[in-house]
């Protein structure tokens, strides 16, 4: 007899609480639809190569860290004038996400003082 996947309890490791949907649960394999819509609007407006690159990196970041970027972050990224400025938004968003998985750089040989 096959196991019905709907009977399986959900694990926190397979999803995240979405900051853009009032903390609603999203499956980890899919990005938030509301977030995607918002993202698409900004990405459509990206007329230059470096703007398109910027939004490509934002998408890659969100795929790797689902639920890390809020709508406010997207606006800030859109308005950022320098690469430094929007990269800072990306790194800041990482500190906000709850770590559900151990990041490899934390486990393998950190820097040691003296
Ligand atoms: Zn959402």
How would the blueprint of this fold be written?
Blueprint: E1 15-18, E2 24-27, H1 33-45, H2 49-64, H3 71-79, H4 83-96, H5 104-107
Antiparallel strand pairs: 1-2
Bound molecules: zinc ion (ZN).
Attribute tags:
single chain, 114 residues, 5 helices, binds zinc ion, DUF2806 domain-containing protein, DUF2806
Identify low-pLDDT runs. Answer: 101-110
In N-to-C order, the SSE pattern is: EEHHHHH
Q: Helix count, per DSSP?
A: 5
The amount of helix comes to: 40-55%
What percentage of the residues does DSSP assign to strands (E)? 5-15%
Q: Largest beta sheet, briefly?
A: 2 strands, antiparallel
Q: Give me the Rg, rounded.
A: 17 Å
Shape: globular
**Count of DSSP strands:** 2
Which class do the helix and strand fractions yield? mainly alpha
Bound molecules: zinc ion
How confident is the prediction overall: mean pLDDT? 82
- Biggest sheet strand order reads 1-2
Could you tell me how far the N terminus lies from the C terminus, measured between alpha carbons in angstroms?
Answer: 60 Å
Protein name: DUF2806 domain-containing protein
InterPro entries: DUF2806
Organism: Fulvimarina endophytica
Descriptive notes:
Residues 101-110 have low confidence and may be disordered. A hairpin with a 5-residue loop joins strand 1 and strand 2. The protein has helices at residues 33-45, 49-64, 71-79, 83-96, 104-107, and strands at 15-18, 24-27. The termini are far apart. Helix 1 (33-45) runs parallel beside helix 3 and helix 3 runs antiparallel to helix 4. By secondary structure, the chain is mainly α. The structure holds zinc ion (ZN).
């Amino acid at each position: 007899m096959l196991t019905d996947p709907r009977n399986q309890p959900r694990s926190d490791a397979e999803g995240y609480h979405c900051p853009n949907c009032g903390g609603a649960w999203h499956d980890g394999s899919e990005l938030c639809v509301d977030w995607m819509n918002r993202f698409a609007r900004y990405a459509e407006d990206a007329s230059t190569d470096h703007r398109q690159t910027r939004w490509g990196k934002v998408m890659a970041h969100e795929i790797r860290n689902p639920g890390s970027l809020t709508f406010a972050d997207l606006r800030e990224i859109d308005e950022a004038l320098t690469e430094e400025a929007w990269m800072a938004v990306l790194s800041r968003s990482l500190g906000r996400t709850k770590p559900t998985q151990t990041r490899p750089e934390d486990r393998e040989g950190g820097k040691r003082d003296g």
